[in-house]
Amino acid sequence: MKIVIWILIFLATFGFMEFMAWFTHKYIMHGFLWSLHRDHHKKDHDSWFERNDAFFIFYAVVSITFFCLASFTPFWYGWPLGFGIMAYGATYFVVHDIFIHQRFKMFRNANNWYARGVRRAHKMHHKHIGKEDGECFGMLIVPFKYFKK
Fold first, then answer.
1. CA angle 98, 62, 76 (to 5 degrees)
2. HEC profile for 22-91?
3. Distance of alpha carbon 133 from its chain centroid, rounded?
4. CA neighbor of 120 nearest in space, from 94, 138, 98, 93
5. 143-149, long-range: CB < 8 A, 24+ apart
6. Distance CA 115, CA 110 (A)
7. 8 A C-beta contact, residue 18 and residue 141
8. Tens of pLDDT along 18-67?
């Protein structure tokens, strides 16, 4: 029974992270921390790294905190919470940085309906260079209209 609860917590955490990514992107990255996110929308630098890359540190620290709580206290729920956050972060990296932005030249030929929809939604997000007037702040769940031909 404990493994079932563990898996449910993991899956719920992973799913909740899509909401957190949307919320963070819309209200924090395009809000008071635009100064860190701006270089992701406007390539005014020569470095492979972006200031925007610093955002992963926050969620990594949250995930590691849950691992520490689970390791050093009776709070075993920290394991599925930490792994759910970590799994979403890894998925975000693969989808956003590798698949969409091609920071590593992989998955270039992925062309199924889901891949096309996610790419279209992200392209629409990036058509706005400034922090205002943005659209489609999610990553894995995007509006259905982007899946239509």
1. 115
2. HHHHHHHHHHHCHHHHHHHHCCCCCCCCCHHHHHHHHHHHHHHHHHHHHHHCCCCCHHHHHHHHHHHHHH
3. 20
4. 138
5. 146/117, 146/118, 146/120, 146/121, 147/113, 147/114, 147/116, 147/117
6. 6
7. yes
8. 999 999 999 999 999 999 888 888 777 677 788 888 899 999 999 999 99
